[in-house]
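@channel anyone free to eyeball this complex?
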Amino acid sequence: MAETKKTKKETAAKKEVKKQAAPVKIKEKQQPRIGVFACHCGTNIAGSIDIEALQAAAAKIPNVAYVDNYQYMCSTPGQKKIEDAIKEHNLTGIVVAACSPRLHEPTFRTATKEGGLNPFRFEMANIREQNAWVHMHDHEGATEKAIDAVRIAVAKAALLEDLIPKKVPVEKAAMVVGAGIAGMQAALDLANAGIKTYLIEKEPSIGGRMSQLDKTFPTLDCSQCILTPKMVDVGRNENIDLMTYSEVDAVEGYIGNFDVTIRKKARGVLTPKEAEGRGLVGGGCNGCGDCEAVCPVIKPNLFEVNMKPRKAIYINHPQVVPLIYTIDFDSCVKCGLCVTACGDKKAIDLEMEDELIKVKVGTAILATGYDLFPIEKKDEWGYNKYENVVTSLEFERLICASGPTGGHLVRPSDGVTPKKVAFLLCSGSRDNTGVGKPYCSRFCCMYSIKHAHQIIEKIPGVKPYLFYMDIRAFGKAYEEFYYRIQDEGARFIRGRVANILEDPVTKNLTVMADDTLLDRPMKLDVDMVVLATAVQPTTGVDTVRKMFGVSNSMDGWMLEAHPKLNPCGTTTAGVYLAGVCQGPKDIPDTVAQAEGAASAASIPIHMGAVELEPYFAMCIEEKCAGCGMCVNLCPYSALALVEKDGRKVMQVTEAKCKGCGTCGGFCPGGAIWMQHFATPQIVAQIDAFLLGGEQ
Amino acid sequence: MADEWQPKIIGIICNWCSYAGADLAGSARTQYPPDIRIVRVMCTGRVDTLFILKAFTDGADGVLVSGCHFGDCHYLEGNYKGAKRLFLLKSLLKNIGLEDKRLRMTFVSASEGAKWAKVVEDVVKTVKEAGPSPIANR
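replying in thread with the prediction:
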């Protein structure tokens, strides 16, 4: 007992010292006293694991000084048990056998701290996610595994050290990648909260997919009418640095201090501001369009889904923000006619080159949106083969007043107004054939119902037929909208379309399906087919995703930190997600998530500083031979060789080190001490499992 | 059942992908055999060949190292470095009289809970087929 008290004094004395000094790496001799707490988690754990047997076995593990169990360790009384036991039993380390450390490690670290220990003297044994829940029918096996998990955790806890998180300042600026409705909303919120925000868009103008839509469901608001005020706000907001026709080139750093390199692609046209920078006061593009009028090069217009021509110098649509022309250098022949037409404004520079711009931001939001699934892969529906089969996005442009036909829906084959139109829902979505996407694209049901309304409104006597599997009208006022359009005369047929045939002369289409409500095959002659095409992540977005260290889900969308409780965050601190890049969602959900992401991204900036987990590498100088192998291994260039006492040793720049341990995994001399994941700690874990031992 | 030989398998897995994937298997209640014990590291780049050799000399019948997919490492390229080291070690295991199938490296992402269950099932099956480690019996 006397010995124990001495230990406590030593611990207290040590803590005093460590408050001022950086954590030391050499462990002093002190008998560890570990407290083990087993959680029942109701029946989640206790249903598969014998907690009594676990506790009895834990009491015999070397260095264990105290054992206890509780129904819910994460509850207030559960945490209190930890705090009290530390004080009453002079514990030097805590092990909680419960859920995943990815869930409750912060909770129990706080409890450990409240009990008077350094919070990093805590180790968790995961006996729920990686045990009770996955061995539900093998109680004996699960209990044995739980005992070993506790053994492994105790071995580490016995060797854990006091660590102090590193506090770093947060740059008072944010970045939003992608300027569709999600990115715009997030940037506006950040900017209005007083944060300097860099909004990066790869296209020449902002607005994203929403700017291509005609109307929005269920309110039938004109998409551009509700979008353009926001676009104008973004263009005018003093806190937003809008960078269009730009892409993220490189990302370095960590939360609070991301160094981002932006590639501003050569657009060949100077803004008034850029012109002023070159000494051309009053010059630069004013969007007059004189250049476009004289340009001899004609290319398909991507914004109009290739259904309208554009010139090599172009703007996407009349309401673009910023109103600056762009030269497509891949098709420009550099004839110089535009330069002459531009005249004194001297806005055009045919020799412009890409520019690299470096900015520093504290947090970043990814809002990179979606592309359509290449629906021609579903051969049976004949997209790209039959002229009158179009995608939903092509339909949006065809029905839009600013679109290629001035809002008159016509058949691409002959320009005639269709009288019977089939809409194929789940085109490529909820498709388990391996060709399409297994997930629901979530907004196709509703926009297809809206499409039906639009043609009923515009074409007298038209007959819309919607082929569906299930109608998913889940949002506010969606179900009511669905009923309304049924009343307007849209026909809903529950059945998937097996294939489509085309009359080679008239180009009319025959849709073959199975009407599952009437339980009979059916054949329907129509003038036109609209495929409610599945969505998929934007092409090439993986590069940006990886630069920011964000993982992806099985289906390719970016992975949120937690699907329910942290849908805007990612596993990279300081990086957040907004909009469809995280998974298909409609405009209301996208805007809501964007506001959530903006709020989350503003928190570290307003706090001014964040704490980083102190899992840094440290050099044990007496063991370091100065070989420099680690220097080349470090993915972050955090290590360097320096001269010290006449020889070379490795030195770590803590601010750059992210704690992966790649250097420590290689060092031939064992000269690298990875804090919290040190070699002796990991070896002790391995030994504890394989060699066991009892006290 | 109780008399059946239980292999000792240790899994050293990375925090960001495989550990999260294993957690996901748990939330989804995907069942797999319990014959594996987990040590969590931040990255498979941290895995020193010493850890694996130590496990084998301690009597492990199998070792699994699992990390992020190539190109998806939370630390950019730690998993490449870890994998390189492991594959080299794998080729050397034969020289000390240990079947290289006792050491396995897999790549399981945070969203691949079902894959994690399959990996463990497969590793347990492989090690059970290989039988007790010749080092463990010495």
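from a first look: Chain B touches chain A through 56 residues (CB under 8 Å).
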